[in-house]
Amino acid sequence: MDIDYQRCEFAYTPANVPEGARHPVVVVGAGPVGLATAIDLAQGGVPVVLLDDDNKLSHGSRAICFSKRTLEIFDRLGCGRRMAEKGVRWHVGRVFHRSDEVYSFDLLPEEGHQYPAFVNLQQYYVEGYLHERAQELPLLDLRWCSKLTGLVHHPDHVALTVTTPDGAYTLDAQYVVAADGGKSTVRALMGLESHGRTFRDRFLIADVKMTADFPAERWFWFDPPFHPGQSVLLHRQPDNIWRIDFQLGWDADPVLEKTPERVIPRIRALLGEDAQFELEWVSVYSFCCLRMDSFRHGRVLFAGDAAHGVSPFGARGANSGVQDADNLAWKLRLVVEGKAPHTLLDSYAREREAAADENILNSTRSTDFITPKSAVSRLFRDAVLQLAKERPFARKLVNSGRLSTPTTYADSRLNTPDTDAFAALRPGAPAPDAPLRHKGIEDWLLRHLGGGFTGLYFAGGEEDAVVLRQLEALEQEAVPVRTLTIGAGGFEDSAGMCAARYDATPGSFYLLRPDQHVCARWRSVDLQAVRAALARACGKEAIQALPEEMEHA
């Protein structure tokens, strides 16, 4: 039976609050970022309480474009395939100027990837699937109708006041993750602010239900004849729903523009007077590009829209928020378990603040191109668009939204610098997927990296047996490293794509973080170097030597 995720309401259940109990982690906000963080922690063995002041999923499509990297994260959380199957897959975009197509682009031209460049999937489906996954995890305590109304920061914990239909109670947490959106209650209670730039423009979102033969592509118009002087974006979603964004200008009345009398003529101008459609959801928005100065404040960590905000052009909002969760959860787990110093959490702030700056820069440039603020800027933009139709060099200047890509943490202190030369990737880069075969079954690399540290060993050398015995010792560490072997009876790289994407030769070894980013690599295994890199990736400055019998196993 199909579930109407837009109209789901979840029952409030009185919380069991044992006196004196202290929870390892409390996450505030059950949107995509909060749910992803809580699921990651719970399936990694950390008990987590997830609070939400509502008891429903999001209404309207809201965030719809989910990137390949985000789908890979959702896959690790147990629901990526389901999202990809429901979503509309796409990788081609087209840019139009007035009546003419300027050019098209392909975001994933090569084969050998489990997930597409993007899927379009309404946010309520994403939240619904994550919620159902959360319900499967016994260590995840999701509490609806639980509004945060007080927060006191102590040296060894955070005391939260939670108000429910039954009254208020106090909840103590070792750490708090604020994933409660752009109007973050946590941020307000702590007297913190975000800083950045507000754009003086408004856009209309219309979710339209119709049957149409438009392809599953991203279509963006500059100054189209059906909406002159402005821009329009068209995306297909599941269930015959189409997302249309109309630029309105800053002087537009946001209340008036949401009325059917204003929306329907705009849609008919695009689709034709005889088009048959129904309005599903309408919203008018303006936006800012901003972020908090720091994503970590003691025992409180901010993620998603609570920490940063960007314009919607480029699908960088929800995708970057999920990547915040991916970065934060494993670090919190190690700190809570006493396997890493609390300073490891500073690396979350540094890495994701840099990612936010990258997203804000791209979003600001996109917005400035889409909505020029002067006659000179508009003249430049229109000239670029005219040139781009015939001149490939000009297409690099066209900016209808630089679409979301995962951040490479090139300057992270958790990386171990290369001592050997590699032509592909670099420390801090996300690990690329590749097709593999295992016991005769077609498979994918990333599905086997798990949620812990993973070693990726490319077999084929004379010392394989000795090296693999040495690497077994890493599985006994306090922070274990499980080795995945390519070749030598392990996974078969039958298409050669894995070795090519990792520039691997026989004996090459990669150390991958739990969030599937590269933290170190070598052309041959030096066990002490691997252990030093592991310690560094866990935020430790010193390590102990391996016992002699393990060193020479």
**Structural class, from helix and strand content?**
alpha+beta
User: What is the general shape?
Assistant: globular
Low confidence ranges:
542-553
For the largest beta-sheet, the strand count, sense and barrel status come to: 8 strands, mixed
Q: From the alpha carbons, calculate the radius of gyration and give it in angstroms.
A: 25 Å
CATH class identity of the largest domain: Alpha Beta
Average of pLDDT = 93
CATH architecture of the largest domain: 3-Layer(bba) Sandwich
Number of helices, where a helix is a run of at least 4 consecutive DSSP H or I residues: 15
Oligomer: single chain
Strand count: 25
Tell me the domain tally. Answer: 2
Q: Which fold name corresponds to the CATH topology of the largest domain? A: FAD/NAD(P)-binding domain
- Strand content of the residues, in percent? 25-35%
Distance between the terminal alpha carbons, to the nearest Å?
Answer: 55 Å
Task: Give an account of the 3D structure.
With 553 residues, the chain is an alpha+beta fold. The C terminus is likely disordered. Helix 1 runs parallel beside helix 8. The termini are far apart. The chain has 15 helices and 25 strands. The protein has two domains: 355 residues, FAD/NAD(P)-binding domain, CATH 3.50.50.60; 117 residues, Glutaredoxin. Strands 1, 2, 8, 9, 10, 11, 17 and 18 form an eight-stranded mixed β-sheet that branches. Strands 6-5-13-14-15-12-16-19 form an eight-stranded mixed β-sheet, with helices on both faces. The protein has a four-stranded mixed β-sheet with strand order 23-22-24-25, covered by helices on one side. It is globular.
